[in-house]
Amino acid sequence: MSEQTGTGRTTRTETAPTGANTGTPAQQALLAVLVSGERPPAPNALSTSITFGHRALLKIRHVPEQLFDVTLFPIIMTLLFTFIFGGALAGSVEDYIQFFMPGVIVQSVVMITMYTGTTIRNDIEKGVFDRFRSLPIWRPSALVGMLLGDTVRFLIASAVMVGVGLLLGWRPQGGPVGVMLGILVVLLFSFSIGWIWTFIALLMRSSGAVMGVSMMVLMPLTFASNIFVSPTTLPGWLEAFVGVNPLSHVVTSARELMGGAELGSSFLIVLLWSAGFVLVFGPLTMWRYRDAR
Amino acid sequence: MNDLAIETSGLVKTFGTTRAVDGVDLAIARGGVHAVLGPNGAGKTTVMRVLATLTRPDAGTARVLGRDVVSDSKEVRRRVSLTGQFASLDEDLTGRDNLRLIGRLFGYSGRGARSRAEELLDAFSLTDAGDKQVKKYSGGMRRRLDIAASIVVTPELLFLDEPTTGLDPRSRNEVWDIVRAMVSGGTTVLLTTQYLEEADQLADRITVIDRGRVIAEGTSAELKASVGSGTLVVRVMDRADRPAAREVLGRELGVEVREEIDPSALTANVAGSAGVTRALTALEDAGIILAQFSLGQPTLDEVFLSITGHTAEDVEPERGSTEKTSTEEQAA
Q1: What is the ipTM of this complex?
Q2: Which of A74, A84, B103, B185 is the least buried, fewest Cβ under 10 Å from its Cβ?
C-alpha cells in the first residue's frame, strides 16, 4: 500500500504482528492519543449546529456538482418561464419579468429545498448519522446545521437568479436593499419548510420516495399560486386556494419588498406559516430521529 | 451504582413481525473485551444499537455504565463511542476533515480540533491519507479512521460492530492490535463478531447470541469446556492398518472411535490428554505406523454446533455478501 510511509506506520508494520504485546511503538502511540483524549467543555447547541452547517459547505467544496441544482436549475426556470409566458401574459418579456421575477425566485428556491430530504436519506443510509446520533450533543443540531448549510445554497440560487433577471431587464424598484430583504423572507420560509422534508426523509425508506412525496406537495403549491399569473384571472375556487396557499404570501411579500411597495399583511402570514412549520415538523422530525434508520 | 459496564434485562426489539432481539439479559463487567458472537441476523447489531442509544427497545431495560439507555440517553452518549458496521464517516470529506468535525462537535476549539486530528491521524498511520476523501480509502484505512473518530474523546466504553468484517488478514490484525491497546488504556470494549476466531483471539468473555436470544456465556475456555472434550485425530500410514488401529484405540481410550471419509483417518472424542499417550504407545507396540496424529481442543465452531444444533457457517454467507444480509436485517 503506497500510503505506508508515515513514521507511525513504519513502526507498526515492523513490530506489530498478530498478538503483539502491549508496548510496541505503534501501541504506545495509540495509548498516548487515548490518554490525551481529554474532554473539552461541552459545546452549545448553536456551535454544534454551525459545525454541521460547515460540514454541508465542505461537501460542496469536495463535490462541486452539488451546485448544479442551485445554479443551472434556477437559470433554466427563469429563462423558460419568462420566454414562454412573457409574450402571452404581459405582452413582452420586459413587462412580464417585472411581475414574474420575485415569484420565480420563490418557486426555484422552494423547489430546491426538496434536496434537503434526499440528502438526509442518503446520509442515514451511509451510516454517518449513526455517528452523529451517538454524540453527546443537542440532538437536532445535525439537522439544523444541514438546513443552515442548505440556506447558503438557497442564497447562491437567489443571487444567480437576481443576476439573470437583471440581465433580462428586471428593474426592481425596491433597490438592492429591497431585493435583499425579499430574499431574506424567501430564505426564512425555505428553512422552515425544510423541516417537512426532514420529517418525510425519516418517514420514508428511500430517497426516491422522499423525492416523490416532496414533488407531490410542491407542484400544486407552486403552480396554484400567484407566481405566474394574477389570481383574479382564476375561477373562484382556485382563487380561494391561491389565497390560502402560503407560497402566495411569500411571493406577495417578496414582490412588495423588491418592488419598493409597502409591506402588507402577507409578511405576517409568512412568519406565522414559518413558525408553524418549525413548531409542527421540528418535533415530528426529532420524534422520528430517535429511531432513525 | 454498580460496576457493570452493561446490564440488560428482558431486552426486546421487533421490526414488523421479526423479533430481532427476543429477551436478552446481559451482565458485562467493566474492563477488557467482551464479544457478542453470533451468525448474521442473530440480533447482535440491534443489541448494540440499543445499547448505544441509536434505537429504543420495545421492552426490557438496558443500563450502560449505570445509566438507563432510554431515560438517561444523553449521559450514556457522553460516555460511550460507537464504530458502526458500515463506516460511520462522511465519505465526501477527507479523513482530516472528518476528525476535525468530530473534534468540533465534542467542543474543541478550531485549533484544538485541528491538532487533535493530527495526533489521531499520526497514531493511526493515516497522516499521508489525511487529505484524501474517505470514499477513496481502502477498507482497512477506513476502519482505522472510523476507530480514530470514536476516540477523539476517549470513551469509557467502545462499541465495535463487526470491526473486521470484510477486512484482509493484515488489516484485521491491525484492528486487533488497536483493540488490545485500547483495553490496556482502560477502555471497555464490546464487539460483535461472526468470526469465532476473532472472539477467541480478543475477548475475555463471550456471549453467544442466536435468533435474538442469548444461548451461552462465558470465557472461550469455558465455552469449549462445556462441549466436554477435545478431539483426537489419527491417520495411519497404511490404510489396511485402519481397522486394527481402531480396535486398539477403542480398547485403550474406552470411547467410540469413528472412521472418517478419509480412508486412513480415525477420530475420537476424548476427555483429556491422559489416555491418549497410552493409546498411541499401544499403537506403536502393535506395529501400526502413523502418518499423523493431533489432539485439539474443540473449536468455537464445534461449540456453536453443540449449543445451537447448527454451525455458524450454516447461516453465515460469504464474507463478501455480509453487508447485504445485514442491511436486510435492518430493513426487515
Answers
A1: 0.82
A2: A84
**A135 closest CB neighbour out of B77, B85, B108:** B77
Q: Is the same domain home to B78 and B150?
A: yes
Distance from CA of B187 to the nearest CA of A (A): 9
- In this structure, is residue B322 part of a structural domain? no
> How far is the first Cα of chain B from the last one, in angstroms, to the nearest whole number?
37
Nearest CB to B93: which of A20, A58, A131? A58
pLDDT digits (tens, 9 = 90+) for A107-124: 999 999 988 888 888 888
Asked if residue B210 and residue B261 are part of one domain, the reply reads no
pLDDT of A23: 58
Alpha helices, DSSP H only, in B26-105? 44-51, 73-79, 95-105
Residue B319 pLDDT more than 70?
no
- The per-residue pLDDT for range A141-186, each reduced to its tens digit, is 999 999 999 999 999 999 999 999 999 999 999 999 999 999 999 9
Q: HSE of B139 in the Cβ direction (CA atoms, 13 Å)? A: 14
Q: Is residue B12 part of a domain?
A: yes
Alpha helices, H only, chain A: 7-15, 25-35, 45-62, 68-90, 93-112, 114-126, 128-133, 141-168, 175-203, 207-223, 236-244, 246-258, 265-289
CA distance A282 to A270: 17
Mutation for testing the A interface, residue in B177, B178, B197 having most A CBs under 10 Å: B177
**Which chain A residues are within 8 Å of B119, Cβ to Cβ?**
32-33, 36
Inspect the interface and report whether the beta carbons of B128 and A6 lie closer than 8 Å: yes
Same domain (yes/no): B87, B193: yes
- A175-233 pLDDT, tens per residue? 999 999 999 999 999 999 999 999 999 998 888 899 999 999 999 998 889 888 888 88
| Pair B9, B81 in one domain | yes
> What nine digits make up the cell of A118?
434526499
Decide if A131 and B84 are in contact by the 8 Å CB cutoff.
yes
DSSP string computed for A22-72: TTSHHHHHHHHHHHT-PPPPPPPHHHHHHHHHHHHHHHHHH-GGGGHHHHH
B216/B233 same-domain check: no
Task: Point out the residue among B85, B105, B181 whose CB comes nearest to the CB of A43.
Answer: B105
Domain endpoint, select from B163, B196, B225: B225
Q: Are B75 and B170 in the same domain?
A: yes
| Structural domain span for residue B288 | 229-297
Predicted confidence band of residue A12 (pLDDT cuts 50, 70, 90):
very low
Give the domain ranges of chain A: 44-289
Q: Give contacts of A127 with chain B, Cβ < 8 Å.
A: 84-89
Question: What total number of domains does chain B contain?
Answer: 2
Same-domain check for residues B22 and B170: yes
The answer to the question of residue B102 being in a domain is no
CA-nearest residue of chain A to B175?
A18
Q: How far is B240 from chain A (nearest CA, A)?
A: 42
B158: nearest CA partner in chain A? A134
| CATH code where residue B141 lies | 3.40.50.300
Are the Cβ atoms of A130 and B184 closer than 8 angstroms?
Answer: no
Domain membership of residue B101 (yes or no) is no
**E strand spans, B138-289:** 157-161, 188-193, 205-210, 213-218, 230-236, 257-259, 265-270
Task: Work out how many CB contacts closer than 8 A connect A with B.
Answer: 171
User: Span B223-249, mean pLDDT?
Assistant: 84
Q: Give yes or no: residues B30 and B78 share one domain.
A: yes
Cross-strand partners of A145: none
Q: For position B312, what pLDDT does the model report?
A: 56
